[in-house]
């Protein structure tokens, strides 16, 4: 019965579906956001101001008043004092109902906050019921549920009551296992949460630390772990090209590099090489801080695919980043006879057709933007798909690239480090490799917070830096509402700096420039022919200019933490002392203040990511991954890390030893939504 659809009137059905309420289980797992205590009555004289209370009183008089505005006013009293009820929005039926409540033995049972008004103690828009002296009080706290327009609390309570009464609430977990891990039975937990007794520890209930909440949170995390783990195992049943090679191309590339791989790079490369030699598709997330050397690891992985007779595709989210990768990969690989093709949306038709033809034939490595997944692009024998800054692509886009090559191995890269709790929860379907070591020679970056009022000092600092033979980035504010406005700000800033620093060569790069213009400007900056590069966030990732030692980020309060960290990582890439100036405008909001403090105090991307998760919560943090994974409604990844670890261990065992229990658990929690996880 538990998975049956709950019968509801058609008018209500659509509104309930907005809340995700269709099956019995949906209603059972629609848990209160808070509770109200209607189990006792207080007198008017004893009621505390500003605290929700319940009183019972007789109606003395009712009137509709028109000054200062139209309102319904009723005077009520119990044996200890009087109270004024005020309704600013009301219906004619309410007037009639309150007038009728003056008759005989009728009482009003009111719930709300009492405050001092012009006419004494009053309640504004209290919840009320007409009762008699014999009407019993509730025996449990009253739940308040998340709802939507047109669905009243009373309707929700009634439907949830029906679902609870008509469902067996079987436990999907073994009773003995639950006892050993101090987890309440499922049935007892949900019944308590929907109707807590008056003597329940209210702080634990509201703070979601009560054992009943703990059981529900565990079940939710377990459903997520089971689903992701099952997707992981299902992928392992699929065939993929076995990319075995003798490593000669990789050895030649390594011998030609002006640097040696770090221990972390060697470790990660071994993990990837082992995956690529398996007959099932690799699904690995490579994460590493800014400058940890992910691109060379990807290039060496591509070498293995190429040597095995297959192609590799390298997709990046922006044209400027894709182009950086293309130029770097071509420099590294073309001397060894590797054909590297370039494919992006802005190519002219003839060039695009030529690139598409290369992808379908002779190219060993195809680098580009999301143009790689568009109709008309086919690969001859795609063995490895590499996705850079993977969190900036949607689930559907990543799937498209996989479909292009049948079932290639997939390497996803991210310079936004993912906190361990998120990796264990939202990325449980992936193997995760971490580059936790920076190459030698990276100089520490000083971070300075400077108010916009001291802009003149910052401009003087730019002049001094260029005087020492160094170069400067000046990043313009992020204006999400308007690309046009953002562009104008960059143009204005370029004009101001050109006037103030007339003796310097100042360039301007932004997203609206043609690719050839952008490439030419970047090439000039790399060659040292531009002293100061005014830019929008197109230089956020991938740009490597060792001589740039000063980064000024204007309106730093408008940027997210990971973006500030990425931008800061554009300097400190050479042997010179480097500084990142965060220019902010007062007054700062509390969130902006917190963000700037975190970026000022920390340089470790993993710690910044952990603090960012704490500030924003997992929903925002995982970005487009959200479209593939249902967000946790009840569990908190920081508070409940022990539950995530416990659920991860149990998920493995359940899928192996108790598949029927695992199936029942997933059906209860995810229903048809598990399809979302297949990406």
UniProtKB/TrEMBL annotation:
<keyword id="KW-0234">DNA repair</keyword>
<feature type="domain" description="Helicase C-terminal">
    <location>
        <begin position="468"/>
        <end position="614"/>
    </location>
</feature>
<keyword id="KW-0413">Isomerase</keyword>
<dbReference type="GO" id="GO:0005524">
    <property type="term" value="F:ATP binding"/>
</dbReference>
<dbReference type="InterPro" id="IPR014001">
    <property type="entry name" value="Helicase_ATP-bd"/>
</dbReference>
<dbReference type="Pfam" id="PF00270">
    <property type="entry name" value="DEAD"/>
</dbReference>
<keyword id="KW-0233">DNA recombination</keyword>
<feature type="domain" description="Helicase ATP-binding">
    <location>
        <begin position="275"/>
        <end position="435"/>
    </location>
</feature>
<protein>
    <recommendedName>
        <fullName>ATP-dependent DNA helicase RecG</fullName>
        <ecNumber>5.6.2.4</ecNumber>
    </recommendedName>
</protein>
<dbReference type="GO" id="GO:0006310">
    <property type="term" value="P:DNA recombination"/>
</dbReference>
<dbReference type="Pfam" id="PF19833">
    <property type="entry name" value="RecG_dom3_C"/>
</dbReference>
<keyword id="KW-0067">ATP-binding</keyword>
<dbReference type="InterPro" id="IPR004609">
    <property type="entry name" value="ATP-dep_DNA_helicase_RecG"/>
</dbReference>
<dbReference type="GO" id="GO:0006281">
    <property type="term" value="P:DNA repair"/>
</dbReference>
<keyword id="KW-0238">DNA-binding</keyword>
<dbReference type="Pfam" id="PF17191">
    <property type="entry name" value="RecG_wedge"/>
</dbReference>
<dbReference type="InterPro" id="IPR033454">
    <property type="entry name" value="RecG_wedge"/>
</dbReference>
<dbReference type="InterPro" id="IPR047112">
    <property type="entry name" value="RecG/Mfd"/>
</dbReference>
<comment type="function">
    <text>Plays a critical role in recombination and DNA repair. Helps process Holliday junction intermediates to mature products by catalyzing branch migration. Has replication fork regression activity, unwinds stalled or blocked replication forks to make a HJ that can be resolved. Has a DNA unwinding activity characteristic of a DNA helicase with 3'-5' polarity.</text>
</comment>
<dbReference type="InterPro" id="IPR011545">
    <property type="entry name" value="DEAD/DEAH_box_helicase_dom"/>
</dbReference>
<comment type="similarity">
    <text>Belongs to the helicase family. RecG subfamily.</text>
</comment>
<dbReference type="GO" id="GO:0003677">
    <property type="term" value="F:DNA binding"/>
</dbReference>
<keyword id="KW-0547">Nucleotide-binding</keyword>
<dbReference type="Pfam" id="PF00271">
    <property type="entry name" value="Helicase_C"/>
</dbReference>
<keyword id="KW-0347">Helicase</keyword>
<dbReference type="InterPro" id="IPR001650">
    <property type="entry name" value="Helicase_C-like"/>
</dbReference>
<dbReference type="InterPro" id="IPR012340">
    <property type="entry name" value="NA-bd_OB-fold"/>
</dbReference>
<dbReference type="GO" id="GO:0016887">
    <property type="term" value="F:ATP hydrolysis activity"/>
</dbReference>
<dbReference type="GO" id="GO:0043138">
    <property type="term" value="F:3'-5' DNA helicase activity"/>
</dbReference>
<keyword id="KW-0378">Hydrolase</keyword>
<dbReference type="InterPro" id="IPR045562">
    <property type="entry name" value="RecG_dom3_C"/>
</dbReference>
<dbReference type="InterPro" id="IPR027417">
    <property type="entry name" value="P-loop_NTPase"/>
</dbReference>
<keyword id="KW-0227">DNA damage</keyword>
